[in-house]
Amino acid sequence: MRFELKIAWRYLFAKKSQNAINIVSGVSAAGVCVATAALICVLSVMNGFNRVIERFFSEFDPELLIRPAEGKFFSLDCESMQAVQAMPEVAVFSPVVKETAMVEYRDHQVPARVMGVADNYQQLTHIDSIITDGSFLVWDGGFDRCVMGRGLASTLGMNAHFVGGVHLYAPKRLEKVNLLRPDQALNRETTFISATFAVNQVDYDDHYCLVSLDCARRLFCYSAEEATEVQIRLAEGADIKRMKKLIRNQLGDSFEVLDRYEQQADFFRIALVEKLLCTLLLAFILMIASFNIIGSLSMLMLEKQADISVFRNLGADRQQVRRIFLFEGWMISAIGALIGLVLGLGICFLQQEYGLLRLGNGYEYVLSAYPVAVEWLDVLVITAIVLLMGFLAAWYPTRNITTEQ
Question: Of the candidates 189, 192, 201, which has an alpha carbon nearest to the alpha carbon of residue 99?
Fold first, then answer.
């Protein structure tokens, strides 16, 4: 151990002539400890909520989504698309027709995103796990059925057990509007609700209505070989990034290939911004807590003027004396950070295991307790921020230290 570090270690735990120095040092370490624990807990809770929302998205969104780079629809009867479908790593290849239509039930009318799905849609996603009422069914052998978002069904005043027809209206895409009979410019399809689902996201729950692919093609005037997008589930063990690149190379620039994160780019971008802002806010609080280190070191340097003279007479230069007090301040910060990390991780572990901090009584919310997910990259970043703050707080009062009497 270096000479400067030994002296700093001794100063840290030795009794001072002025008890206020011990108190200020303790307050400094406590402030750093609380701020560090707060950073760990808050960021872990944010990670927990993000993972919960990601899980809901993953139940509805496909692993890979193919859509045209320009325009609204494309033909499935092309060599490149057939080559993608024939890839051995592609377990489920499901064309989709998705457009906006008017949904009507009795005297309620609501615009919605009508999504026509193929027969293999249940193999593509985990839609059954988010069904809240009824069972997934878009064709019963005789009639078209629909599966609605819970919010959309509520707006229409219905649930999965209603037997009345749900009417879908969309403009005839390939015909001009007859101003004398504008009602003839609309296609109409009638379905019967079979289930409701909840992704717990407004964009899905309040706007989506799933119908059969044939029903959507009739409603929006698409042929049997046309689709607005293709959703893909890969075979177990397939590498998503590699397959995404292969499919993109196969299809060329005419198509976009999106993974789940890119399909929800806006959400993940907002979540990242929220996390950065929260980190900056708590880092600012940590910086204020670190100011106590400046006061503690300033008082210690005044008390140790005689020791500084002794170090000078023994041959210590100015840089060595500076490093003694620099190490002192840094150790105060490091001890507070270490205790804060242990405290924060301990609180997160208890919350994960026992759900100490609860959300209501468990019935009003999707979750009964605050979710927690500790990411070790966050722990490393927090540790680096704390140590950097501690270094700056220790460097400031020692930058002009002198060895003169």
Answer: 189
Q: For 58-197, list the strands marked E by DSSP.
A: 64-68, 74-75, 90-105, 108-117, 131-134, 145-149, 166-171, 186-197
- Chunked into runs of 10 residues, the chain (405 residues) has average pLDDT values of 69 61 77 91 93 85 94 92 94 96 94 96 91 94 95 94 93 76 84 94 93 96 95 94 95 94 90 91 85 78 74 72 80 89 95 85 68 93 88 80 49
Calculate the CA 244 to chain-centre distance.
21
Give the single-character DSSP code of 69: S
Residue 403 pLDDT: 45
* Sequence ranges of the domains in the chain: 3-57+267-398, 62-262
Helix/strand/coil for 82: helix
Query: Kindly report the CA angle at 77 between 72 and 81, in degrees rounded to 5?
Result: 80
* DSSP 8-state assignment for residue 16: P
Rounded distance between C-alpha atoms, residue 118 and residue 96, angstroms = 7
**What span, in angstroms and rounded, lies between the C-alpha atoms of 358 and 345?**
18
CB atoms within 10 A of CB 226: 17
- The most distant pair of C-alpha atoms in the chain lies apart, rounded to whole Å, by 106
Distance of CA 382 to the CA centre of its chain: 19
Measured over the CA atoms of residue 241, residue 247, residue 252 and residue 254, the dihedral's sign is: negative
CA 42 vs CA 56, 274, 382: distances in Å: 22, 11, 12
For the full predicted model, state whether its pTM sits above 0.90.
no
Rounded distance between C-alpha atoms, residue 252 and residue 288, angstroms: 53
Specify which residues 147 forms β-bridges with. Answer: 195, 210
Ramachandran region of residue 221, left (φ > 0), alpha (ψ -120 to 50) or beta? left
Q: Which amino acid is at 200?
A: N
Structure tokens at 220: 């929006």
Residue 89 main-chain phi, psi, to 5 deg: -80, -10
Neighbours of 231 (CB within 10 A): 24
CA distance 368 to 354: 11
User: Residue with structure tokens 């011990």?
Assistant: 22
Cross-strand bridge partners of residue 90: 234
